[in-house]
């Protein structure tokens, strides 16, 4: 018998309801609620009474193009000048998309001070054109702020390249000058309590940046890779010698105590679960362009059940599965290979 489209659709709905759940990440990364006051200002509505001066002569299409190609800070500042400017900026397609679906992203990028490094169109594209994690290619429901790229929860917590550097460390490690640093997105952290298993309180803001971007800028500044390597291998300044000593002792400690998963699925080890990871990330949903739906991902109940029966040797792999989030299509692809989800669905049918 051929199943009707309606039956298939309702079965999919039932499967999603029975086999998935939404993970909460309260207090782990920069929280949208930190920015409520700014979000309110962004959504303020009043009628325009003034003009936008010489910009008024441009056709609407050109104005919208200008806003799209501007860095995120420019239209936000422009819209604060008068109500007419606010109305125009708010009506431009890419900014509108960000303001409606992810006002917290605008607020946080402004607040941490890197909104001037990324254009409105780049961030809007990131929201709806590609849901993949920049590190592993799976669904990424977080933004790694220092590079303004998507990343998944696992990569945010455990990937080597998502531990941001402090500005002082990047200057010591790569010999970056203040002029080079000024060209890079350096974020100022928001004080608060962060981390999964860490729950670390950070009351003073610090400045963080991506080690990969810092290294790439240092290559340019030193005049090529070989000159940068010569700098890294040399003794350098006192700050560099201190930095090198700290890194060497940390690597030695890690070699002696390789990180292991504890009972709560946290990687325990010296400095492994670095709180800077959480301070440099925020939730970043995916806007499905065909349906207009916004997704922050769903997790698999089957994988969570698998934790109850797993051996200690497979614990690491199972934890990574439990941390994973999926889009609707992504979940059904996962279902095909997830024996526990299939078993759970079958057992529900037998009830
Ligand atoms: Zn990933
Ligand atoms: Zn599963």
Can you describe this structure?
- The protein has helices spanning 5-19, 36-42, 60-69, 73-79, 83-91, 93-101, 103-111, 120-128, 153-158, 167-174, 178-181, 211-222, 225-233, 238-256, 275-279, 301-309, 315-323, 328-337, 339-350; strands at 20-21, 142-144, 149-151, 165-166, 187-188, 192-194, 200-202, 207-209, 260-261, 267-268, 281-283, 286-287, 294-295, 299-300.
- Strand 9 (260-261) and strand 10 (267-268) form a beta hairpin.
- The protein starts with a helix and ends with a helix.
- The mean pLDDT is 84.
- The chain is built from 19 helices and 14 strands.
- The protein folds into 3 domains: 1-22 and 298-351, no CATH class; 31-138 and 150-158, no CATH class; 165-279, no CATH class.
- The chain binds zinc ion (2 copies).
- One zinc ion binds next to helix 9.
- Residues 300, 302-303, 334, 338, 340-341 line the site of one zinc ion (ZN).
- Residues 52-98 form the F-box domain.
- InterPro entries: F-box_dom (IPR001810).
- This is F-box domain-containing protein.
Structural class: mainly alpha
The number of helical runs is 19
Unreliable residue runs: none
Overall 3D form: flat
Care to count the β-strands? 14
How confident overall, as mean pLDDT?
84
How many domains, as an integer? 3
Q: How far apart are the first and last residues' alpha carbons, in Å?
A: 24 Å
Identify the bound ligands. zinc ion
The fraction of residues assigned to DSSP E strands is: 5-15%
How big is the Rg?
23 Å
Largest sheet: 3 strands, antiparallel
The helix content is: 40-55%
Give the strand order, joined by hyphens, for the main sheet: 3-2-11
Protein name: F-box domain-containing protein
InterPro entries: F-box_dom
Organism: Asterophora parasitica
């Amino acid at each position: 018998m051929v199943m009707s489209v309606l039956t298939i659709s309702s079965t999919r709905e039932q499967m999603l309801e029975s086999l998935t759940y939404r993970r909460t990440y309260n207090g782990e990364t920069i929280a949208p609620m930190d920015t409520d006051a700014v979000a309110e200002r962004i959504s303020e509505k009043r009628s325009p009474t003034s003009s936008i001066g010489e910009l008024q002569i441009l056709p609407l299409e050109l104005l919208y193009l200008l806003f799209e190609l501007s860095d995120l800070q420019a239209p936000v500042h422009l819209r604060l000048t008068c109500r007419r400017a606010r109305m125009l900026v708010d009506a431009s397609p890419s900014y509108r998309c960000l303001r409606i679906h992810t006002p917290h992203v605008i607020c946080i990028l402004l607040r941490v001070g890197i909104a001037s490094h990324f254009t409105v169109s780049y961030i809007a594209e990131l929201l709806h054109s590609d849901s993949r994690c920049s590190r592993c290619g799976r669904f990424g429901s977080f933004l790694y702020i220092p590079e303004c790229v998507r990343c998944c929860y696992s990569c945010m917590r455990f990937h080597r390249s998502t531990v941001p550097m402090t500005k002082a460390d990047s200057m010591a490690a790569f010999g970056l000058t203040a002029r080079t640093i000024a060209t890079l997105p350096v974020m100022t952290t928001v004080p608060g309590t962060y981390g999964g298993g860490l729950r670390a309180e950070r009351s003073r803001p610090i400045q963080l940046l991506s080690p990969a971007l810092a290294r790439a800028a240092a290559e340019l500044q030193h005049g090529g890779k070989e000159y940068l390597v010569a700098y890294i291998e040399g003794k350098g300044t006192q700050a560099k010698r201190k930095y090198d000593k700290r890194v060497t002792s940390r690597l030695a400690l890690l070699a002696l105590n390789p990180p292991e998963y504890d009972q709560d699925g946290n990687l325990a080890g010296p400095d492994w679960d670095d709180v800077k990871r959480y301070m440099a990330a925020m939730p970043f949903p995916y806007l499905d362009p065909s349906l207009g739906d916004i997704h922050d991902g769903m997790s698999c109940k089957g994988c969570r059940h698998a934790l109850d029966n797993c051996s200690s040797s497979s614990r690491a792999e199972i934890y990574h599965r439990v941390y994973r989030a999926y889009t609707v299509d992504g979940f059904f692809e996962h279902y095909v290979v997830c024996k526990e989800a299939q078993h759970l669905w079958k057992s529900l049918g037998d009830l």
